[in-house]
Amino acid sequence: EVQLQASGGGLVQDGGSLRLSCAASGFRYDDWAMCWFRQAPGKVREGVACIDSISRSDGNTYYADSVKGRFTISSDYAKNTMHLQMNSLKPEDTAVYYCAADDYGPRYWGGKWSRDLDYDYWGQGTQVTVSS
Predict the structure, then answer these.
(1) What is the pLDDT of residues 21-45, one digit of tens each?
(2) What does the pLDDT look like over 82-93, one tens digit per residue?
(3) Mean pLDDT for the chain overall
(4) Cβ contacts of 72 within 8 Å, gap of 6 or more
(5) What is the rounded distance in angstroms from the CA atom of residue 94 to the CA atom of residue 129?
(6) Residues 6 or more apart from 25 whose CB is under 8 A from it?
């Protein structure tokens, strides 16, 4: 059974930093894509960042325009763990952050990565709150 466990959320001031982690277990395949989505109150869930292979050193990364240059997605291939380093946080980054995974991913979808319906596995959310 595939399980995703997200952690690292919290309360931070405008301009601060947080590091989210998503630990995966139960994977049957080596070449999985893992991504972060977020959902703010009253808004639809949106893609934040994605890495199209957690087991390959040449995995491509993808970012929403709103977080480019501030957030960095990475993975520890040996531990099946994905991280999201979030710097220069803004109040508009406040949301519940979810990690998602799929045994296909953008590598197979022509680079498309941000549609949440495409991902089969989801972790529980972790709250990120940025105060102004």
Answers:
(1) 999 988 765 678 999 999 999 999 9
(2) 999 999 999 999
(3) 92
(4) 49, 84, 85, 87
(5) 5
(6) 2, 3, 5, 80
Place of tokens 């099946």: 80
| Residues whose CB falls within 8 Å of the CB of residue 17, separated by 6 or more in sequence, listed in order | 85, 86, 87, 88, 89
| Six token digits for residue 49 | 């960042």
Give dist(CA 106, CA 112) in Å, integer: 5
Residue type, 113: W
Please state, in angstroms and as integers, the Cα–Cα distance from residue 74 to each residue in 14, 43, 56, 85, 127, following that order.
Answer: 23, 26, 11, 8, 20
The residues, ordered by sequence, that sit 6+ positions from 48 with a Cβ below 8 Å of its Cβ are 35, 36, 37, 38, 63, 64, 67, 71, 84, 97
Q: Residue 30: which region, alpha, beta or left (left: phi > 0; alpha: psi -120 to 50)?
A: alpha
* DSSP secondary structure of 25-69: E----S--EEEEEEE-TTS--EEEEEES-SS-TT--EEE-TTTTT
- In Å, how far are 30, 83, 111 from 59, measured between CA atoms? 12, 14, 12
